[in-house]
Design a protein that fits this description.
This protein is mainly beta. It has one domain. Helices cover 11% and strands 54% of the residues. Strands 1, 2, 3, 4, 5, 6, 7, 8, 9, 10 and 11 form an eleven-stranded mixed beta sheet that branches. The chain is globular, with a radius of gyration of 19 Å. The N and C termini lie far apart (64 Å).
Length: 172
């Protein structure tokens, strides 16, 4: 094998290519309005490494209409459910949701050797505990021209000490 061939092969094996990236589901926001959910995902390569400076994104999972249907968040939806202030550090990303800007969320993925899949890990402080975030629930009052958030529930499992369920209700 020529030196050029070895160099190209080495680069091919070491450098992530955009075509080889995938999106790993992180968590969802469920709402009182209907069964539709906002799904958050992390963009990684085939070796479960974060592949961009803004790897977290969100989209609608339209469960109320057709369970398999998705669509991007509109500009208006981004104001409520958008991802802001992403910072990648090694193979972790710290980000915030527009609706919860005072709650930094930290996410990563690790390669599962037996299945060859990327396993996500999402941490946030819930009720004074570092917890694995499972879901967010938003209760709204829809009887107005513009919906008003009544409360937001964070649901997860404590990761320090014995695992136990934790929840926190945030009232805006």
């Amino acid at each position: 094998m020529s030196r050029l061939s070895r160099t190209l092969l080495t680069l091919l094996l070491l450098l992530p290519l955009p075509g080889w990236s995938t999106d790993v589901p992180l968590f969802v926001i469920q709402r009182s309005k209907n069964a539709n959910e906002v799904q958050y995902q992390l963009r990684v390569n085939d070796r479960c490494q974060i592949v961009s400076h803004h790897p977290v994104s969100a989209f609608w999972h339209l469960r109320a209409d057709q369970p398999a249907t998705t669509e991007p968040l509109s500009a208006f939806d981004q104001l409520a459910y958008g991802v802001v202030r992403q910072r990648v550090d090694a193979n972790w990303v710290v980000f915030r949701l527009r609706a919860l800007e005072d709650k930094p969320i930290k996410a990563t993925v690790t390669a599962h050797p037996d299945t060859g899949t990327c396993v996500p890990s999402v941490h946030v402080e819930i009720n004074d505990h570092v917890a694995a975030l499972e879901r967010v629930y938003v209760q709204t009052d829809e009887g107005r021209t513009r919906p008003k958030v009544t409360y937001i529930d964070l649901v997860g499992t404590r990761v320090e000490g014995a695992p136990m369920p934790v929840t926190e209700r945030i009232t805006p």
